[in-house]
Amino acid sequence: EDLSLSARIKHLEDQGLLEACPEKGRKKVPAPIPVPDDIAQRFLREDRENG
Q1: Cα(13)–Cα(9) distance, rounded to whole angstroms?
Q2: Is the pLDDT of residue 23 over 80?
Q3: How many domains does the chain have?
Q4: What does the DSSP 8-state code read for residue 29?
């Protein structure tokens, strides 16, 4: 089935698997931490090499 995201969420809510969050209780997601362009890839590469 090709359902929109909102339709899939509504379906999960109807099944009791998700619960709607009240507007008042929502928390904002913090902005990502700024890092140099290639540092994440470098850490991943080092982790793979040492893992």
Answers
A1: 6
A2: no
A3: 1
A4: P
Burial class (CB in 10 A: 0-12, 13-18, 19+), 37: exposed
Residue 24 sits at the vertex; the CA angle it makes with 20 and 26, to the nearest 5 degrees, is 65
Report the pLDDT value the prediction gives residue 51, as an integer from 0 to 100: 76
Domain residues for the domain of 17 are 5-50
Q: Is the pLDDT of residue 43 over 80?
A: yes
Model pLDDT, residue 1: 67
At 42 the pLDDT is 92
Q: Which residues contact 6 (CB under 8 A, 6 or more apart)?
A: none
Backbone angles phi, psi at 25, to 5 degrees: -90, 0
DSSP-based three-state secondary structure for 48: helix
